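Structure tokens please, single chain.
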Amino acid sequence: MTQEIHGTVADGFEAVREEFAAFVAGERADYEGQLCAYVHGRKVVDLWAGTGADALYGVFSSTKGAAYLVVALLVQDGTLELDRKVTYYWPEFAAEGKGALTVRDLLAHRAGVVGTDTGFTLAELADDRQLAERLADQRPFWRPGTAFGYHALGAGALAGEVVRRATGRTLQEVYQERIRIPYGLDFHLGLPAPEEPRFRTTQPMVPTPEQQAVLDATPTGPHSLASIAFNGNAAEPTDLVSLPNMPLIRAKGPASVGGVASARGLAGLYAAAISEVGEQPALLKPDTVAEFGQVHSTGHDLVARAHKSFGLGFQMTADTWHPVLGAGTIGHSGAGGSQAFADPWSGLSYGYTRRRFAFPGGAAPENDRLVRAVHTAALALGEA
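Here you go.
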């Protein structure tokens, strides 16, 4: 039985609804997902299937996008300076030869502290301050600044500790006060208890036999960089799929992976970053967006063992995922399949969530066709 498509699209975006419906028709009968997009601050797509419009999902590393917007805002304010050493704000970070690293390199995944020699407990993964303390003591896995690798579970804690030292407030508090509340975003770093009934537990991946063969052919040992980065070397290795299903993770909202959001929340976050939304001005000036969207690390990612590109924290979405997008697009995907970004060239802001963990992890493959459809409509709108 094919899921019914709910929601609305603006004039000119009818093909997006058709593309979403065509994708859902080919999915499992229990598919749940949401798609939302803005163009120049105006909502033009708001669709969902198999769930309600107000359902909330764990968005894994799409959380990092909210964290990096906090950092960008503080850089724009002058509270943080990108080319200061991390130790200017956080002296303890100098341990084990990390003292020369700048904030710029920290954000660009160049620190080399993708994890620790012994891994983390669940309590540490949930608490960014504890996580940051462990990472500050860790000897880096490569010489800081000389290479890059995805700091999967620690990037938000590292950025968050710099924010806390500079402002006296946690990253989550700054996000709540300056971004989430003013823009009314359905994207939480720390899910309030009254919102818990809206949360939909993440469902495990159900790979086809061919997909399972791919997974089986690319194992990682417990002490590989990839395993360390995803806490596979801990006494109790982390099951990534289950992280958002843990109440402690949802309540604390760790800035690497603990966000809970709807597609409306994801798209609204990036709309707020680059556009006026309602009566609220854009969070970031064009020069700030351009600097954070400038490529800082590109080439062989030591953790992913593949070609990747990062700006200041943000994934270079046009290079890594969707080449139809404009250069300097800022965004971040999540392991379960979520995707979110802002393309300053077209004014497009996009958010996608799904309940079941997608193969092979990261932005779910359906985003390719959905992004193309939304982007084509956005460009046509601009030319009309």
